[in-house]
Please model this.
Amino acid sequence: MEDDKVVDNLLQELKRGILVLSVLLSVDEASYGYSLVTILKEKKVDIEQNTLYPLLRRLEKQGLLESLWDTEESRPRKYYKISERGKEVRRILKSEWSRNNNIIENLIREGGK
Amino acid sequence: MKLIDNYIYLIGKKLPLKGREDIKKELRSILLDDLEERYGEKPGIEEVKNVIKDFGSPSEVAKKYGRNRGPIDPEYTDIFFLILKLVAGAMCIAFTTVFVVSIFTAGSESTNILTGVLQIPLNVLFGTLTATGVITFIFIIMTRLGVSTNFTVDNDWVECELESVEIGDMSESKPEKIVTMLLLFICIIIFNFFPSVLVFFEDLFEKSGILLSHRLNLEVFRVYAVLLSLTAAAEIAYYLVLIKTDTKTSGMKMYHSLISLADVVLLIVMFNSSNLFPPTDSGSSLLVGYKLILLINIIVSSLEMLTSLGKTAKKRIEMEMSKDK
Model:
């Protein structure tokens, strides 16, 4: 039971960083909250709705996303798109991801199975 | 979409003020998108409840929007405030008990009793402030150490209760409710155990040189004190539920209106009782004394009641009109 909790916490930590990069990689086109959930699910990214929406707002606050309310449709929707700063951060994260991925792959190959 | 609006209203009450309206607007749009995607353009009530249930309790949702905002992790917010409330309540009981015991053991004159009564709220305030400091410190350490509580006040939350939620303004503060409860509690204590304090105030007033047109008959007042205490206790119960649930349902509003009505009727009966307020020999034609306070109370309470009834009726009419549309 205690072990399950430890594993859950570790998985959550691991996922937290992946989610930010996943979102930054999916908002080149302006997308509203619900459509982004669908896009991420199609790409097999496991994310709960009520985790994604606050994350979008946080990234917006950090200047990584830009937002715009579209009031012309039948219901007003808030669209998010990656900002220039977001693109720069994404580039750094991507390269860091590749570097870490190689390290982990090597460690696994060397016997940490 | 009353259920959605009620749900968002409950979330909104727990959100930080900054950005609250924008978050609420976005949540509404997201929930309606989800609803439409899953159940089409005309979903039933059960389907709306399903979407809300999957989205999570208002506390859970609000917490996710408040993460990393201060020295105390939002995960602890519910339990932090619950402990503060319990501590404040315990302080009230403790200081009142100490005061009552000191009267019986030491024996006191009316002035000492009055001083003692006035000291209770001060002692409660300072005691609670000290305890708040200690509790806050403990929670800051817990946040630093990342201790997990997995505790939410509304973890037994059921979405079917949403229908009875009544959307009001968000101006009612918890300290206001706690102060009201405290004052009502003090009134109950004075009316039942120290009614002579009321006569003491009459004597004090007459020392100013203005003569009273009537005086309070303490023997008769003891009977009314029981009735006044009953309405005060009913009101305390109302505020306790309001603090616990943080939600004013239509049933609770009705209950509060009935208490207010009973209170006004009782005050009118008291105002008209010549046994309760026998006239003095002053010959004053002006209403000087407790009857004047009663009259002001009757007017204010009646106006409050009428305003509240007017608002409810207006809301009902608006709801009926929106249904017809």
Q: What stands out?
A: The mean pLDDT of chain B is 79.
